[in-house]
Amino acid sequence: MKMLKFKRFITTAVILLAAYLLQSTVFSHLELAGIKPNLLLIVTAAFGFMRGPKEGMWIGLAAGLLLDVQCGDIIGFYGLIYLLVGALNGLFEQLFFDEDIKLPLFLITLSEFLYGIVIYFLMFLLKSDFKFPYYLGRIIVPELIYTIMVTLIVYPLILWVNHKLEAEEKRSASKFV
Description:
The structure is a single chain. With 177 residues, the protein is an all-alpha fold. It has a single domain, classed as Arp2/3 complex 21 kDa subunit ARPC3 (Orthogonal Bundle), CATH 1.10.1760. It is 79% helix and 0% strand. It is built from six helices and no strands. Helix 2 crosses helix 6. The protein is globular, with a radius of gyration of 17 Å. The relative contact order is 0.14. Pfam families: MreD. One of its GO terms (cellular component) is plasma membrane. It is a multi-pass membrane protein. It is found in: Cell membrane.
């Protein structure tokens, strides 16, 4: 059983690291009007509602700390935001059904929108930058649309990996019964 937990941990870490590397390298070259999708938010939200608030929080914290190391002025700023995203998405674990993409798409959309609002509030509004309509129209909404388009490709891959891990865990659990 410990081996399966270790395998899940390693698989999740590889997915998180791959999302981080893709977001910071490949998608920085695929920017549209200076906007790139938020792959780390997709991974955090997906694991949150697939695995629950506790795992969503840990993955969110790791994703946020990766961003903090790369581009944060304050270590823990993005870590806290992503931790909250993972925890809040984890609250919907009971409503999550694998075959229905509407809830994951809605939750990732809502997470991306709230993420943009929080970033605006904490990074711009507190510095007396009151250009919210500009920020909403030029950054939040375009990033939201781009993230949704990428979610339609990335989310099924994350779901497939989660299915494989859960199937292996069920096979292992049935051997002990």
